[in-house]
Amino acid sequence: MKRITILESAAKAITESILTFGEARLNFICTHNSRRSQFSQVWGHFLAQEYDLPITSYSGGVEVTACNERTVASLNRMGMVIDSEGIDNPKYSVSWKGFKPATLFSKVFDDVANPQQNSIALMTCDHADENCPFIPAAWKRLPLRYEDPKRYDDTERESSAYDETRDLIREELDQIFAMVKKSISEG
């Protein structure tokens, strides 16, 4: 499937959710909820505010680990201000451009911090997409897969791989949210 078709499907589902429920609850899901799903949650959070759309972003995994420190470092390199609380699975408060801060931490997809109904599950990794067949709170489930920057951990490409993943997720969510804004404005 062409990437633009995947992005258009996501935009269509988000638009439908806003028109049906008055909002869209996006739950970005990846196995460990430590890299791609965290990038997606933070960009979804900030872009919803930038586009003034009634979208709330969440993230979860099939196991709890921690938001990877390389993910946090990449967000910091982007100019985001990050405070943390806790040790084993810290909660990060992420601020950017005067928007309301995002809170990031690793959790399972059905954690109480995530929506319990009417969410759109966006599967950001192939493992979670293939091994997590049912998400009770999701009324829509769509693939939005990204390559895992983890494969570059402890190499000279580590920082650039994380930054490239961060930027690609931002770019694609920006495209999706622009399509949603256009559809809502025209509707």
What is the succession of H and E elements?
HEHEHEEEEHEH
For this structure, the CATH topology is Rossmann fold
Q: What does the average pLDDT come to?
A: 96
Which runs of at least 5 residues are low in confidence (pLDDT < 50)? Answer: none
**Roughly what percent helix?**
40-55%
DSSP strand content: 15-25%
Per the principal axes of the C-alpha atoms, what is the gross shape?
A: globular
Q: Which CATH class is shown?
A: Alpha Beta
Q: How many separate domains make up the residues? A: 1
Structural class: alpha/beta
The CATH H-level homologous superfamily: Response regulator
Q: Note the main sheet.
A: 4 strands, parallel
The strand order across the widest sheet is 2-1-6-7
Radius of gyration (Å): 15 Å
DSSP strand tally:
7
Tally the helices.
5
What does this structure look like?
The chain is of the alpha/beta class. The chain has one domain: Response regulator (Rossmann fold, 3-Layer(aba) Sandwich). It is 42% helix and 19% strand. It has helices spanning 3-21, 36-51, 69-77, 126-131, 158-186; strands at residues 24-29, 55-60, 81-85, 91-95, 102-104, 119-123, 138-143. The chain is globular and about 45 Å long.
Blueprint (SSEs and pairs):
Elements: H1 3-21, E1 24-29, H2 36-51, E2 55-60, H3 69-77, E3 81-85, E4 91-95, E5 102-104, E6 119-123, H4 126-131, E7 138-143, H5 158-186
Parallel strand pairs: 1-2, 1-6, 6-7
Antiparallel strand pairs: 3-4, 4-5
Short description:
This protein is α/β, with parallel strands linked by helices. The protein has helices at residues 3-21, 36-51, 69-77, 126-131, 158-186; strands at residues 24-29, 55-60, 81-85, 91-95, 102-104, 119-123, 138-143.
